[in-house]
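We close this part of the discussion by returning to an individual protein. The encoding preserves chain order, so positions in sequence and tokens coincide. The sequence in question and its structure tokens are set out directly beneath this paragraph:

===
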Amino acid sequence: MIFIGIDYLCFSLSKSLLDNNKYTKQPIEITAFIDDEPWNNRTQVNGATVFSPSEIAALVQRNQVDLIIQIQGESIEIADNIWENIVKTNATIITLQQDQDMASMQLSVYNAC
């Protein structure tokens, strides 16, 4: 799974999913976070590395990522040609709403897995 963004909602959702791993039959593994701020590149968030948007397609292919999560309103720009390469993979892309509560966000992620 890859998260697009490292804002509070992405951080909180990823943390809650990881915390639930000990209670669920579907353990979550976070491959990467995507952020376009250069000072965040190669830092760690909840045990996963932050990469630039230009690297997402290669990450999906190299790590056989099956789920990409984005939250509506996240301001990260990903070029159309990169999205085209992502769409060619088997990865599912889900967009969550900022006003969703954490439980419904988690449910959406588990349903997409």
The chain has a mean pLDDT of 91. Helices lie at 8-19, 56-63, 80-87, 102-112. The radius of gyration is 13 Å.
